[in-house]
Amino acid sequence: MARCKSVVILTGAGISAESGIRTFRAADGLWEDHTIEDVATPEGFLRNPDLVHRFYNARRQQLGEVQPNAAHYALAEFEQKFTGEYLLVTQNVDDLHERAGSQKLIHMHGELLKARCKRCGSVSAWCGSMDGASRCPLCSAVGSLRPHIVWFHEMPLELDRIYNALSRCDLFISIGTSGNVYPAAGFFQEASAAGARTVELNLEPGQHASIFDHFENGPATSLVPAYLK
Ligand code: BJW
């Protein structure tokens, strides 16, 4: 670690699991109770916006009841002390990384606590009272707000910055993601092609664990602080 000049870290739902946020694909995961096509696609939102708003409102409410855990804090501390280039890319839409103190952070799948206007494209804070009939705080259009979430078939955010960092890194660490969802699932290959060492820290091996240079298995709250020490 001391010899690294540029580090990219990718996190998934597993890093927030011990804070009490459900992952997606576990036996008790979010996709067990909800049909992906209904709640996580633009077509589902067009069909039944009320259902989608209810799904995200319930998750916003839960976010107020959970706290960052030792893995989130370990990443924030590492960012503070590491002197090279650093980028944390999270697929998570919760705000636990920033609440732990991370700053060099990209939410590639959006943010639960933000709204996006379909008319003017502006992104604003999600207020508790917002719903499908609310007015955009910028352009005042009525009924144009949607969750600032990247659904299936939509383009993830800030990919240029992410691929740029991947092309320069010499260490890539994937934490708590199953490696099922692209393009994030392919990031380790980009990093590897650039000559980086690739490391996966996960409770259970992800889709590509066997082709990472190094895999460690266990809960994020133990593995991450120990690995970044
Ligand atoms: C622990 C733990 C503990 C548990 N400690 N670990 C190429 C090939 C095939 C398909 C495609 C492809 N390119 C695009 C696609 C289509 C699609 C896709 O990937 N489909 C697959 C299902 C096959 N991708 C898209 O549509 C994306 N857009 C796109 O590709 O645009 C075009 C494009 C093309 C080429 C280049 C660039 C762009 C958009 C994807 C949007 C994903 N959105 C979601 C929902 C967000 C909203 C919401 O939150 O409601 O994002 S889906 C969901 O999955 C969520 C997550 O961010 C994402 C990843 O899940 P994650 O984090 O890995 O969670 P789990 O549950 O799968 O895994 C949890 C892990 O934690 C496990 O491994 C456990 O072991 C571990 N764990 N406890 C440590 N205590």
TrEMBL record:
<keyword id="KW-0862">Zinc</keyword>
<feature type="binding site">
    <location>
        <position position="136"/>
    </location>
    <ligand>
        <name>Zn(2+)</name>
    </ligand>
</feature>
<keyword id="KW-0012">Acyltransferase</keyword>
<dbReference type="Pfam" id="PF02146">
    <property type="entry name" value="SIR2"/>
</dbReference>
<dbReference type="GO" id="GO:0016746">
    <property type="term" value="F:acyltransferase activity"/>
</dbReference>
<dbReference type="InterPro" id="IPR026591">
    <property type="entry name" value="Sirtuin_cat_small_dom_sf"/>
</dbReference>
<feature type="binding site">
    <location>
        <position position="220"/>
    </location>
    <ligand>
        <name>NAD(+)</name>
    </ligand>
</feature>
<dbReference type="InterPro" id="IPR029035">
    <property type="entry name" value="DHS-like_NAD/FAD-binding_dom"/>
</dbReference>
<comment type="function">
    <text>NAD-dependent lysine deacetylase and desuccinylase that specifically removes acetyl and succinyl groups on target proteins. Modulates the activities of several proteins which are inactive in their acylated form.</text>
</comment>
<keyword id="KW-0520">NAD</keyword>
<feature type="binding site">
    <location>
        <position position="56"/>
    </location>
    <ligand>
        <name>substrate</name>
    </ligand>
</feature>
<protein>
    <recommendedName>
        <fullName>NAD-dependent protein deacylase</fullName>
        <ecNumber>2.3.1.286</ecNumber>
    </recommendedName>
</protein>
<keyword id="KW-0479">Metal-binding</keyword>
<feature type="binding site">
    <location>
        <position position="120"/>
    </location>
    <ligand>
        <name>Zn(2+)</name>
    </ligand>
</feature>
<feature type="binding site">
    <location>
        <begin position="91"/>
        <end position="94"/>
    </location>
    <ligand>
        <name>NAD(+)</name>
    </ligand>
</feature>
<feature type="binding site">
    <location>
        <begin position="202"/>
        <end position="204"/>
    </location>
    <ligand>
        <name>NAD(+)</name>
    </ligand>
</feature>
<keyword id="KW-0963">Cytoplasm</keyword>
<dbReference type="InterPro" id="IPR026590">
    <property type="entry name" value="Ssirtuin_cat_dom"/>
</dbReference>
<feature type="binding site">
    <location>
        <position position="117"/>
    </location>
    <ligand>
        <name>Zn(2+)</name>
    </ligand>
</feature>
<feature type="binding site">
    <location>
        <begin position="12"/>
        <end position="31"/>
    </location>
    <ligand>
        <name>NAD(+)</name>
    </ligand>
</feature>
<keyword id="KW-0808">Transferase</keyword>
<feature type="domain" description="Deacetylase sirtuin-type">
    <location>
        <begin position="1"/>
        <end position="229"/>
    </location>
</feature>
<feature type="active site" description="Proton acceptor">
    <location>
        <position position="109"/>
    </location>
</feature>
<feature type="binding site">
    <location>
        <position position="139"/>
    </location>
    <ligand>
        <name>Zn(2+)</name>
    </ligand>
</feature>
<feature type="binding site">
    <location>
        <position position="59"/>
    </location>
    <ligand>
        <name>substrate</name>
    </ligand>
</feature>
<dbReference type="InterPro" id="IPR050134">
    <property type="entry name" value="NAD-dep_sirtuin_deacylases"/>
</dbReference>
<dbReference type="InterPro" id="IPR003000">
    <property type="entry name" value="Sirtuin"/>
</dbReference>
<feature type="binding site">
    <location>
        <begin position="176"/>
        <end position="178"/>
    </location>
    <ligand>
        <name>NAD(+)</name>
    </ligand>
</feature>
<dbReference type="InterPro" id="IPR027546">
    <property type="entry name" value="Sirtuin_class_III"/>
</dbReference>
<comment type="similarity">
    <text>Belongs to the sirtuin family. Class III subfamily.</text>
</comment>
